[in-house]
Amino acid sequence: MWWLAWLIAAVALGVVEAFSLTLAFGIFSAAALLAAIVAGAGVPWAFQLLTFAAASMVGLLVIRPIALRHASQPALTKDGTDALIGRTAHVLEEVSAEHGLIKLSGEDWSARPLDETLIIPAGADVDVMEIQGATAIVYPRDLLP
User: Fold this and answer.
1) N or C terminus: fewer CB in 10 A for the chain?
2) SS (H, E, C) 35-49
3) Residue 93 backbone phi and psi in degrees, to 5
4) Which one, of 104, 100, 114, 103, lies nearest residue 143 by Cα?
5) How far apart, in whole angstroms, are the C-alpha atoms of residue 25 and residue 64?
6) What is the DSSP letter of 89?
7) Residues 135 and 96 sit within 8 Å (Cβ to Cβ)
């Protein structure tokens, strides 16, 4: 009957992992599942416990650091407004510290210059330096080094 106890422990630890998302309880759940398999084969409880402990240690010391490293890497592609940063836009209405309008990726965007002392005339091309809400912060292309 030990296999059933290990199986219940594996399910319980899996549920805890689903709520905590720490990867630790998931590793313990997998180790308990492995111990349940060993128990189902009729191996004595001491070896079941040793299987659980060894699988847990390997998981925590080897698998979890690799998984956390992969989870913390930035996305390879940019989406949303992040994808607009670095693009070139065309000034439709003069861009100053108070107001401005640019054409960016086929859409009209409100804009302000990165350097608030600049006034960028209509017809100029600008680079999008950042996005703040619905306003693009831009810098004229002809002033870039």
Assistant:
1) C
2) HHHHHHCCCCHHHHH
3) -130, 145
4) 114
5) 11
6) E
7) no
- pTM, entire model: 0.55
Residue 138 structure tokens? 């831009």
Structure-token match 């510290």, residue found: 97
| One-letter amino acid for residue 17 of the chain | E
- Non-local (6+) Cβ contacts of 135 within 8 A are 109, 110, 111, 112
- Tens of pLDDT, residue by residue over 46-98, are 999 999 999 999 999 999 999 999 888 887 777 788 889 999 999 999 999 99
Residue for token pair 């290990």 = 6
Reading the block at residue 47, the tokens are 């070896």
Q: In the chain, what is the straight-line distance between the N-terminal and C-terminal CA atoms, in Å?
A: 75
